[in-house]
UniProtKB/TrEMBL annotation:
Cofactor note as given: Binds 2 manganese ions per subunit.
Binding site for Mn(2+) 1: H181, H183, E187, H226
Keywords: Manganese, Metal-binding, Signal
Organism from which the protein derives: Hypsizygus marmoreus
Record-given protein name: Oxalate decarboxylase OxdC
Organism placement in taxonomy: Eukaryota, Fungi, Dikarya, Basidiomycota, Agaricomycotina
């Protein structure tokens, strides 16, 4: 009697013979087997299934195992252009349509905002998922108007993503004073136009007076009392941007000299200063904040402190720093290695020429607060897990990128793009995507991205920072 096991073996050999490839047409050509060289033992479950299949006489499909390229497991990216669909000069009412996606607006629209933000209404197809809003125009901030100037702020109340830093844009007419005050946070400043005389005294009684011009900086550590006064170097006075190292900072919570003395009993003031109480008859009953005054005296006329002057100046001439020339623009970096007192704020001033980009990069530990001084730009933020969103920026706008999120900045206009990158850190740091790939074993990069040897050879082992048009 023929055993059951013999029947199973015979059936298996027959099936293998039937599924074997046909001989090659030429005897000189080698044959390649599509059957795996390793065959696993047949389990009892497999034996019963084979027997059941034989009993029912139903053919089963033949499976083959082939070696695949690493990238063959997923589709390749789409190389179709994803440029902005319009700009501020493009006429007409713009629509939320990108290729075959979207549909025309039926309701009302604010076309002035739409013109400035094409990538919000009709985003590139590379955008996906959710990324917090990373744009705030100072033009949308409430402005506090005073005799002699104004101030408007940005903080987490209007830009919730900006957790690490807040900012104030301030204007002083010639002679006008931002009154003596101090903050819980550090204050960093960049002068946009005109000159501002700053004064300060540290905890050891050492004083400081300096006039800070366009493109220059000042920095006051937390709790250091100071004042700001516009000179007449520019007949219009001065304008500057202040950055504070807390996203919840509010200019309205500043400690002001007049506000404090208004809330101290007059007899206490007399005891403290050892003068007659009548000396305080003209203290303002409300805070001055910003007020007109006579032009400041020269820096050299500052009082001489017996304790001396501060060892590390509170101002820095960034305008005199020679920029690093790059293929697509320039960069100047100022942090505590050069501006020693600036322990919590590091900065870069970047220019990007038309068609160039601030290269793909990220900052390993600190958020980036950006301020756009001139030109037009476009940035896509990659927030991991397929989340990406693109924003458009104009002069006067604020941008924000949380730490570790990949991004770039592309000049989408016809003039130079100039902006500040600010970090709550004592040192500027970034990681270049191109440099990372260039310094990674080439075989590994090829297996990830399918690059050719020519592309691998073109990867820069030094940071490009700003890359010129191809």
């Amino acid at each position: 009697m023929i055993s059951f096991a013999s029947c199973v073996c015979a059936l298996l050999f027959a099936r293998l013979a039937l599924s074997a490839p046909a001989p090659a047409a030429s005897s000189s050509a080698p044959t390649v087997s599509t059957v795996s060289s390793v065959i696993a033992p047949i389990s009892p479950t497999a034996e019963s299934s084979v027997a059941a299949s034989s009993a029912s006489n139903k053919p089963r499909p033949t499976s083959t195992a082939t070696a695949t390229e690493p990238t063959a497991t997923v589709p390749f990216i789409d190389l179709d252009p994803n440029e902005p669909l319009w700009n501020e000069d493009t006429p007409g009412i713009h629509q939320p349509i990108h290729g075959s996606l979207g549909a025309k607006l039926l309701g009302p629209t604010n076309n002035a905002i739409v013109k400035q933000n094409p990538d919000l209404l009709a985003p590139p197809t590379t955008d996906h998922g959710s990324v917090p809003n990373a744009k705030w125009p100072f033009s949308l901030s409430h402005n506090r108007l005073q005799t002699g100037g104004w101030a408007r702020e940005e903080n987490i109340a209007v830009m919730p993503v900006a957790q690490a830093m807040a900012s104030v844009n301030m204007r002083l007419e010639a002679g006008a004073v931002r009154e003596l005050h101090w903050h819980k946070t550090a204050e960093w400043a960049y002068v946009l136009k005109g000159s501002t005389q700053v004064t300060a005294v540290d905890a050891d009684g050492r004083n400081f007076v300096s006039t800070v011009g366009p493109g220059d900086l000042w920095y006051f550590p937390p709790g250091i009392p100071h004042s700001l006064q516009a000179t007449n170097d520019d007949p219009d006075g001065s304008e500057f941007v202040l950055v504070f190292d807390s996203g919840s900072f509010s200019e309205d919570s500043t400690f002001l000299l007049t506000d404090w003395l208004d809330h101290v009993p007059a007899e206490v003031l007399a005891k403290n200063f050892q003068v007659n109480i009548s000396a305080f008859a003209h203290i303002p009953a409300e805070e001055l904040y910003i007020f007109p005054a006579a032009l400041p005296e020269p820096d050299s006329a500052a009082p001489k402190s017996p304790q001396g002057t501060v060892p590390d100046p509170f101002s820095f001439s960034m305008s005199k720093v020679k920029p690093t020339q790059l293929t697509g623009g320039t960069v100047k970096v100022v942090d505590s290695t050069t501006f020693k007192i600036s322990k919590t704020i590091a900065a870069a001033e970047v220019t990007v020429e038309p068609g160039a980009i601030r290269e793909l990069h990220w900052h390993p530990t600190q958020d980036e607060w950006s301020f756009f001084i001139e030109g037009e730009g476009r940035m896509t933020i990659f927030a991991s897990q397929s989340n990406a969103r693109t924003f458009n920026y104009q002069a006067g706008d604020i941008g924000y990128v949380p730490a570790t999120m990949g991004h770039y900045l592309e000049n989408t206009g016809n003039t130079t793009l100039r902006f500040l990158e600010i970090f709550k850190s004592e040192k500027f740091q970034d990681i270049s995507l191109a440099q990372w790939l260039a310094l990674t074993p080439p075989k590994l990069v090829k297996e990830h991205l399918g690059f050719s040897d020519d592309v691998i050879a073109r990867l820069s082992k030094t940071k490009l920072t700003v890359v010129g048009p191809k």
